[in-house]
Structures are given as structure tokens and as C-alpha cells.
Design brief:
With 456 residues, the protein is α+β, with helices and mostly antiparallel strands. Among the domains are: 27 residues; 289 residues, DD-peptidase/beta-lactamase superfamily (Beta-lactamase), CATH 3.40.710.10. Strands 5-4-3-8-15-16 form a six-stranded mixed β-sheet, with no helix packed on it. Strands 10-9-19-18-17 form a five-stranded antiparallel β-sheet, sandwiched between helices. Strands 1-2 form a two-stranded antiparallel sheet. Helix 7 runs antiparallel to helix 15.
């Protein structure tokens, strides 16, 4: 009798374990079905780890950027477009970090929890990007590494994006992995880049000054080419003489802004860095994440270190996507959507299976502060750089020439259109190129003019 009871107990235990394991397996299969169905071992979608079957990707004008034909994955007809859009579309072998063909696999492959992967009808993803404008921007970057992006600051839609270096996926260089020219080629520098900002950071210091120094517009600063803090020296790019706050920003005076940074102190500068959305990664609705910036200055640092940090040097680092979002917020009265470029996805019956839902950024600027910064940045262009540089676009902006120990400076331009009927913000970074205005400023101006001409 005891033997029978033990056998029954053992049978019950085995049955319970079987049901538990089966339940866990079914649970896993249900909640991870998409992951299993879209893995590279799925012979319907991949061959030897290479994507061979997925839906169409089209730009804002309907130009095909990627599609499947006769069991083969194909890309845009233009080599320039293929090269410029590489970091957005991604390659078919999965080398490119954050390409749509990876991040939007479910929508591209027509996956459904009930029916699995649809082999007969693929979905079509439409982007907000203009492929030809992206190709134009990529040519403006070359031969330098860096990135350019343009965003509608009222909607958050990116209309242009390019990251350099890149390559034509139909003609990938054999020596790409050991050629310095292609260093970082698999990274989209807009999202993954982290750079010394140089003088574009003075906009952040100006933000803090507007909110924390009551008499900032009544102060003047004398620049004879350098500023001794008592524990170090700040070197300026010129001898500016006596300048006001606005003139100091226009002329990008290191001496004046180092003095302002010291007045503010590390805590206020850190707060402004966070306000501008530069301190933390941005989680985008395109399922990407930007790199967090770094502003490590604290109250333990010397005045010299605070001064250098406040003019965008020292250990200060910013991400281009984050700074573009900050520019959008300044242009748009203090708030901005997170920039995005995947607009929608429709199935074979023209039914939308994905629609982008704009998300507010974490940037917190008052309308008054945003308006004041907007006028200061307008003054940079109208009173110093010259409106002629930007052609038909009435621009606001700030250049940056970020000094480096390992070569020529990084050139920056960050700005936006003052005219809200043409509501676009732009960021441009050209690594180790030289002057911010000469390289990044002119590249940004040309891209904005090209966009303006397209919409005229």
C-alpha cells in the first residue's frame, strides 16, 4: 500500500512539473513569439544571416529606399542615396546599429501574433526624410566625419539626416574594418556621437545666466585676449575689448563667458545642462537612444575649470541629437517633441499598422527664457555672422570651434529658422575640420537653403 501511495505521489509531482514546464514554454512562446519568428535563423526572412525578404521602405516622396524583389533585398537606385541613408535603413547583414531593418522588423515583415510572418503581403514603412536632401547633406559633410540633421521644430519630424563616414551597401570596401577613413562607420553619429561642443555650449551658459543673474544685461566684460581666474587662465579667440552680454555671445568671447560661468558656479551650470536635455539619453519613438552628455564640473573644481567648462571645453561633452532637440525647444517657445523619422506603416490593404505618436522631450524652458535665447541667437546671425551666409532663410544660431588635443577643431553649427512658416532646426558637426562658421556653418546653411528651395 505504501509503495502504491509513493508511486501516486511521484506521478502527481511529475504531472505538476510537466504542466509547469509546458505552461512556461507556452508563456514564453506567446510573449516572445515575435522575437522567435523574426530571428535570423528564419529561412523565410534570412539566408545565411542576410535579410532577403521584408517590406518596402519609402521616403517622404514615395521614393523606394529598400524593397524585396524575386527573393532578394534591394535598395535605392542611386548610389548617393544608398550611401547617405545607410545609417537610417541599415544593411541586410545587421552591421549598422539602429537601422530600420532591425528596429522595425515586425512592421517590415508583416508579423502578426495570430498568423505569424505574412509571406504574401509585406508592409510599407514611410519615413519623414527626403532621400535626396539626405544625399545632399552627406555630400556637404564629406570628406569629414560627422553628422547633419534637420528637424521640423513644430512636429518633431526629421526631414534630413546624414552621418559620415558611410558606404554604398552594394559596394562595401574590403578594408573597411582596418581603414582609419571608416572609423566608427557602423555608428549613426547623430545618436551615438559624443563631442566637445566648443562655443555652442555658450547657449547653455547663456540660458543659466538669463535665469540666475538678474543684472546680466547691465553687465559689461573687458576682453584683452585672456582672463586670469587666480588659479588658471582662460584664453580667448580674439581681443574683443568691452562687450555686453549679447555682444559676448555674438562674438563668442571666451573671456566674457568664462567670467559669467564663474559667477554662476558649477551647480547652476549643471542645472542648465539638465534643463537643456543634454545630461541623459533621449529615448526616441524610433526605438533608438541617444548618448548621454557629460558635464562633470562640481563645486570642488577651480574657477579656471568652471570657466573652461562654461565655454564648452574642459571635459564637457554633448550629443548632436540632444542639442538639436534643445534648439527645437528654443525655437518652439520652450517645448519640443523628440525628433523622429519613421512616420507610418501600412499593410497591403492600405490599413495603417503603425503611426508615429510624437512624444514631448524632457526639456524644461520657460517661454520667456526660450524667447530671450531665440532673440540672442537671431542677433548672432544678423549682427555678426551675416544673413547673406544663409541665403533666403532668416536664421538664428551659434557656431562652435571645439579645440582638440589630437588635431584640428571640431566645427559645429546649431540653429533654426526664425520664420515659423519655415519651422526647421539644424545641427551640423564636422570632425577635425576647423572653424565652426567656415565648415559647419556653411554646410548647415547650404542644407537649409536646399530644403527651402525644395519647398518653394
Amino acid at each position: 500500500m505504501k509503495t502504491i501511495n509513493k508511486r501516486i505521489l511521484l506521478l502527481v509531482v511529475v504531472t505538476i512539473l510537466f504542466l509547469a514546464i509546458t505552461g512556461l514554454l507556452m508563456f514564453s512562446m506567446f510573449f516572445h513569439a515575435e522575437e522567435y519568428a523574426l530571428q535570423s535563423v528564419n529561412g523565410h526572412l534570412y539566408e545565411n544571416g542576410v535579410l532577403i525578404s521584408a517590406g518596402d521602405i519609402v521616403d517622404v516622396n514615395g521614393t523606394k529606399l529598400a524593397y524585396t524583389e524575386d527573393g532578394e533585398r534591394k535598395y535605392a537606385d542611386s548610389a548617393q542615396v544608398r550611401t547617405a541613408l545607410l545609417h537610417i535603413i541599415g544593411d541586410d547583414a545587421g552591421f549598422i546599429a539602429g537601422g530600420i531593418q532591425d528596429t522595425f522588423r515586425e512592421e517590415l515583415c508583416g508579423y502578426n501574433i495570430i498568423y505569424g510572418v505574412n509571406q504574401t503581403a509585406r508592409n510599407t514603412l514611410q519615413l519623414s526624410l527626403d532621400a535626396d536632401l539626405c544625399a545632399y547633406a552627406y555630400n556637404e559633410l564629406r570628406p569629414y566625419k560627422g553628422c547633419i540633421a534637420v528637424c521640423n521644430y513644430k512636429t518633431g519630424e526629421l526631414v534630413c539626416m546624414a552621418s559620415s563616414p558611410s558606404y554604398d551597401m552594394y559596394d562595401k570596401p574590403d578594408n573597411i574594418d582596418n581603414n582609419d577613413e571608416y572609423e566608427g562607420v557602423y555608428i549613426n553619429r547623430l545618436y551615438g556621437g559624443l563631442y566637445t561642443p566648443g562655443s555652442i555650449f555658450k547657449v547653455v551658459t547663456a540660458l543659466s545666466a538669463i535665469e540666475n543673474i538678474d543684472d546680466i544685461y547691465n553687465q559689461t566684460f573687458y576682453c584683452d585676449g585672456s582672463y586670469s581666474t587666480g588659479d588658471g587662465e582662460i584664453i580667448c579667440n580674439d581681443v574683443h575689448g568691452t562687450v555686453t552680454f549679447q555682444q559676448a555671445l555674438n562674438q563668442s568671447c571666451n573671456v566674457a563667458f568664462a567670467q559669467i560661468a564663474v559667477q554662476l558656479g558649477a551647480d547652476n551650470l549643471n542645472h542648465a545642462f539638465q534643463q537643456a536635455g543634454l545630461a541623459t539619453p533621449h529615448k526616441t519613438i524610433d526605438r533608438l537612444s541617444s548618448t548621454a552628455g557629460s558635464f562633470s564640473t562640481s563645486t570642488e573644481n577651480s574657477d579656471s575649470e568652471v570657466g573652461w567648462a562654461g565655454i564648452g571645453q574642459s571635459t564637457t561633452l554633448v550629443n548632436p541629437y540632444s542639442f538639436l532637440t534643445f534648439m527645437c525647444a528654443v525655437a518652439n517657445g520652450g517645448t519640443a517633441y523628440e525628433p523622429y523619422f519613421v512616420r507610418s506603416a501600412v499593410n497591403g490593404n492600405n490599413r495603417q499598422v503603425y503611426t508615429a505618436k510624437p512624444v514631448d522631450s524632457s526639456i524644461t524652458l520657460s517661454k520667456t527664457t526660450a524667447s530671450t535665447l531665440k532673440e540672442l541667437l537671431r542677433s548672432d546671425v544678423s549682427d555678426f555672422y551675416g544673413d547673406y551666409i544663409f541665403g533666403d532663410v532668416t536664421m538664428c544660431g551659434k557656431t562652435g570651434t571645439a579645440e582638440r588635443d589630437d588635431g584640428l577643431p571640431h566645427a559645429w553649427f546649431a540653429g533654426f529658422s526664425y520664420d515659423e512658416s519655415f519651422p526647421y532646426a539644424v545641427i551640423a558637426v564636422l570632425e577635425n575640420s576647423g572653424s565652426g562658421l567656415r565648415y559647419a556653418g556653411h554646410a548647415a546653411a547650404n542644407v537649409m537653403q536646399e530644403l527651402y528651395d525644395k519647398q518653394s
